[in-house]
Each structure stands twice: as C-alpha cells, then as structure tokens.
Fold this protein.
Amino acid sequence: MAQLPSWMGLAPALALGLASLVLLLSDSIDPDTTNTPALAGISVVGSLVALASAVGFIIGGTGVPTSEGGQGTPVLFGGQLVVDQMALFFMVIVASVTALVVLASYDYVSEHSYQAEFFALVMLSATGMTLLSAANSLATAFVALELVSLPSYALVAFLKKNRGGVEAGLKYFLIGAVSSAVLAYGISLVYAATGVLRFDGIATAISSGTIQTIVDGSVQAQSGEPAVPMSILGVGILMVIGGVAFKTAAVPFHFWAPEAYEGAPAPISGFLSSASKAAGFVLAFRVFAVAFPIGDLLATGGAINWVVAFQILAIATMFIGNFAAATQEKVKRMLAYSSVGHAGYVLIGLAAVSASGEGLSFSISAGMSHLLVYGFMNTGAFLFIALAEYWGVGRRFEDYNGLGKEAPVACAAMTVFLFSLAGLPIGGGFFSKFYLFQATLNVGAWSLAAALIINSALSLFYYSRVVKAMWIEEPTGERSIDSYPMGLYTAVVGAAIVTFLLVPGFNQVSEIAFQAAQLL
C-alpha cells in the first residue's frame, strides 16, 4: 500500500471544514434559504466522508510505525499536528456524533430560520474537535479549542425566542471566556518554565531539568540554561487541569453544563455532551500522558501530582453528577447531570495510574473505549429528547407515561440507551464500564473502583424512572402523535443499533484504543 502524503492525514478535518465552507457559501448566495434537505445533506455527506476517511486510515495502519507494519505517522507543521492512532480514534467519535446530530437536525430545525448558519456552526465546531485530536502543542491545542468553543456558544443560544436558551448561551460564553483565560495563563506558565510548547519538548525539559529548544523538528537541550522552575510549572499544570476540567464538565467546573444542555436545542445538547466532551478528553490524555510524565514530575519534588488531582476530580464528579441527576424531575436536565457523572467515569483514564506511571496506557484506553460507546448512547438519548420535543411531549418524567404504546420503536431505542448508560449488558456501556473497573483494579485504586460501582447502581435508579414511565405507567392526559420525522427517527434507531452492536464488537474497539494509547 503506497504511503499517503502527510497532509492527507487531516482528511477528516478537511472534509468537515470544506462542508462548513460550502454551507457558508450557499448562505451568502441566498441568505434566506430554507432548503433544509440540501443543507442537511451537505452536512451529512461531510460527516460521513470524515468518518470513512478516519476509519480507512485506522484499518490501513496510519499512525502505526512502519517498523510495526504500519504506514507511519503523518506529522505536519513541524510537529504541531500529529495524526496518530489516538487522533484517528477520536476523529471517528467526532464524525459519528456529528453525522447523527446533523441528520436529526433535519427535522428539528425545519421550521426555524438561520438553518445554514446552524449547520455551518456544527461543522466548524466539529472541525475544531478533529484538529484538537491531532494537536501536539499547547498553542495548537488552544487555537483548536477556541474553534470548538466559539460556535458552541452560538449553538446553545440558537433558539432566539427561547429565553432559557439565550440565558444559557450567555452563561456558557462568560464562563467559557474565564476558563479560556485560565487555560491560556496556565499555558504561559508552562512555557515560562520549559521554554517550549510542543508536548514532547515539555516532557524532555522536565526529565532533563533544563530548558529545551526545537531544532529541525527535534528536541535538543540548551546547555548552560537554568533548571526548570518547578513551582511555576506546578501552578501552570494546575491551571491546565482547570481548563481541561471545564471543557469536560468535571466538578467543580460543571455548573455551566446543566444550564447549557437544558437550554440548547436537544441535538446540540447531545453534540456538546458527547463530541465536545470527547475533544476535551483527548486534549487531557495527550497533555498529561506525553507532556507531563508523572514519574519525572514526582522525581523533581516540586510539581503537582496530577494523578491525585484527577482521582479527586473523578470521585467528586461521579458522586455529584449522579446524585444531582437522581433528584431531577425533568428528563433533559437529568441527562445533563448524568453526562457530568460520565465525565467522572472517563476521568478514571487519568486517575487509575500508579505513582510511577504504571497502568497509564491501560487506563487511557479504557477511557477512550468508554467515550466511543458513550458517543452513541448519550447522543441517541438526547436525540430521543429532541423527538419527544418534536411531538410536543412535556419535559417531566410523568409526561413520558405510556409513550411506549404510541412509539414503540423509538422507546425501545431509548431503553437501550438508558440501560447501556447504566451499565447493563444490553449495550456496549456494560463492557466499557467493566474495562474502566479493570483499570482501577490494575493499579489497586480501590476508592475509584468503589465509586464506579456505587454510582453505576445509583444511575440505574434514575434511568429506570424513564423506562418505567414509557412502558409501565398509564398516560396522565391525552396525547396525539401524528407524524414520525424520518431524520430524527433514523438517527435515534441508528444510534441504538450501533450501541447494541458494540456488545459483540467492543473487543475490537478496546484493542484499537489500547494500541493507540501504547503508541502515544
């Protein structure tokens, strides 16, 4: 198989970016267009091309060294972007979620204005997520993160006549601006301490104790330079943790998430809680696995122990997210807090690590696998909420009473999503949680293992409330469902099928994730 040029590694990002440009061009030609099939079609095609290219690259061995029979790793812009197996894995997640969201949005936005802007913003944000997956520098990562965030603020407030949505968008913007400032300041401190922004350069500076420079794409030491000031580096790492925690909606930086997810259009809620969360985690995995090797940091004695920080964040996020979800009376807000709890599960990927760094590859691969399964089951659950909103079903649990008799296929799909999110063996969520559980046992992190089990049991309680309402409870009033939107239905059923197929297919997913984590 002929080796592809390096720039071809960015084919998924290029496909999404090109689709967004086509949408903006069509809007500039006809600003008042409401040709929803054409706009949604462009978005779906762009997403599917991105998905197909990412899957093709993984199968073809892109990101695997040629010494191991692969095609090598495309490196672009002097190592600022690296398209390895981890980047491609997360590109698959982003492209899959984007395809589901834009397909479902065909029906959801058909009666609204500014449709071209809606789809263009989704595609631009997805482009940023794919670039963030390949970022190998703090500067590149920050720019990509802003490309993810800025369209997201507008998407949350898309329903301009919805006061709650506009308020949520404003809160999201203000909190996001503060978190970006904290992250930028943290990056500046890391640069002040090490003199480099590339992840491998930062790691070399920490391990050698001297400031490094990059010459001809390789990291070289500057002899005679002073040692890295570890106190400054420790504060920088702490601020980077805060920036990542905001993007992943981890406690105590989660308070924007329930407001934003509830106020946003339901497909956008699924997009932000799945694809955007995955983008935040790929940044965390890359930064802390590559740039800040825990063994070298602890050997210096002056920097922060980020493993302990993530253990505290993981446990707090799991408990606060799930206990808050259990007290909600609105289904969409329950799912919003549930997504916070799942952020805690994925944080195990960085928390189930020994003081020497042992178990990092295994735990990161567990977090990656859970994010892929979560992308389908969580997005599908929010798209079901979008379907219920399309039918005029209320927001509370009792409003879903008896819905299974009127829409059995959609409700069966929702049942698969919810039970898989809870960790029952009806979908891939059971195996991804079990993989996370194995990661905690691998390093003897008993507190993380106990928190995972307790919170999974608690989540079954509040997920079951929706299932009980749909299939067991009698309707509290009259309800008439006279239309079955094709786009929403296709997206919901498709997500349910993939969630179920990940039961027999999870082993292959976990193997790809483990290989990607090892190569990282």
Summary: The beta strands are 75-76, 81-82, 212-215, 218-221. The mean pLDDT is 87.
